[in-house]
Amino acid sequence: MNEMTAYRQFAEKMLHGDSKWIPAILKSMINDEQAVLLVSLPGTAEDMAEKTGRSTQDIENDLLDMFRKGLTFKKEKDGKTLWNPPLHIAQFHDATIVWPEATETFYENWRNYMEEEWPKMAEIFTQLLPRPYTRVIPVNKSIEGIRAQVLAPENVREMVENAQKIAVTKCTCRTTMKNCDAPIDVCLQVNRGADYAIDRGSGREVSKEEAMDIIRRAQEEGLVHVTVNKSGMGHFICNCCGCCCQAFTLLISDGLPLCDPSRFIPVIDHDRCTACGECEDRCWFGAIVVDGESARVLDEKCLGCGQCAAVCPEEAIVLEEAREPGFIPS
Q1: Which of 302, 306, 9 is nearest to 138 (CA)?
Q2: Where does the chain hold its CATH 1.10.10.10 domain(s)?
Q3: For residue 77, what pLDDT band results from cuts at 50, 70 and 90?
Q4: I want to staple 317 with a disulfide (CB 3.0 to 4.6 A). Which of 15, 172, 176, 309 is the partner?
Q5: What contacts 161, CB < 8 A, 6 or more positions away?
Q6: Region of residue 245 (phi > 0: left; psi between -120 and 50: alpha; otherwise: beta)
Q7: Where residue 149 falls among pLDDT bands split at 50, 70, 90?
Q8: 205-224: pLDDT as tens digits
Q9: Which residues of the chain are in CATH 3.30.70.20 domains?
Q10: Residues 258-287: pLDDT tens digits?
Q11: Beta bridge pairs of residue 76
Q12: What are 5-58's pLDDT values in tens digits?
């Protein structure tokens, strides 16, 4: 297999055969032999040695190097280690960005991809997927004392308390895009996600107390909690801004449904509201505006993150249940 064909073939597997930047990203991470190995996966080291004509030891060394870089994923089966490549562009992005030894050239290539090629791919994603891969979780302060039932998968405190292991990693989007000065080390990996981050050295294990401190810091910075869009325990709790996040930026600019809202929506007590504008300034999505002597919620834009309720000095905003529990996919 021609080495340049391997870089292009990888781009094709990411549904980006015409991409300029995916081959450049890959070339800034690995050598030509590793590129050929990557597009030959899945398989065991022994399988890959036979397929490529290289020694098993050399293959194992390359697979471990690419594992640290976020390009290979391992699974133990029948006493053997099966290696897989990234499944899609989102996994390729999220896993590689937190490569501990990443270079500035690598980050620059990713920034160029996100600005020039990701918007078109994101539109394709919304057409292929029945529901967005992620959803918003209300910030913890906004659901304190809430009258409606708050389920465990939408209560960030319960998610942390029920986790068996937690690790913190860098935010992949802010690390790449650098459009704001919000905290970087605030994304939490849970259970299997934590095992993976610790194993490859892209994250460090944290206690539940430190995890909650990270959640509180993210809330204070106006970041929005996001997790896997399913009713069980997800593998991550991201804390996202509206200027770097690969989903939020296009949701805001183009209305692409790349992230589901929470089940809640803010309701304003107009008697208590002083039209101070704190909530309007806090909302990434333009979903709350000060209109005359009171604020007003634009339901069609709201993701139910609760940041407006958390920051209201008059406690004039509360979250109320707007969607049934079945709204969260099982």
Answers
A1: 306
A2: 3-127
A3: confident
A4: 309
A5: 208
A6: beta
A7: low
A8: 999 999 999 999 999 999 99
A9: 129-327
A10: 999 999 999 999 999 999 999 999 999 999
A11: 81
A12: 999 999 999 999 999 999 999 999 999 999 999 999 999 999 999 999 999 999
This prediction has a pTM of: 0.92
Sorted by sequence, the CB contacts under 8 Å of residue 169 that are 6+ apart come out as: 98, 185, 187, 188, 189, 197, 202, 203
CA-closest candidate to residue 246, choices 204, 187, 319: 187
Residue 36 main-chain phi, psi, to 5 deg: -65, -40
Q: Look at residue 1 and tell me whether its pLDDT is greater than 60.
A: no
- CATH class as words, domain 3-127: mainly alpha
For domain 129-327, the question of CATH label 3.30.70.20 is answered with yes
247 contact partners, CB below 8 Å, separation of at least 6: 122, 132, 134, 226, 240, 258, 259
Quick one: tokens of 51? 């397929």
Q: Of 216, 293, 305, which Cα lies nearest the Cα of 252?
A: 305
Per-residue CA distances from 239 to 145, 161, 186, 222 (Å): 23, 18, 6, 9
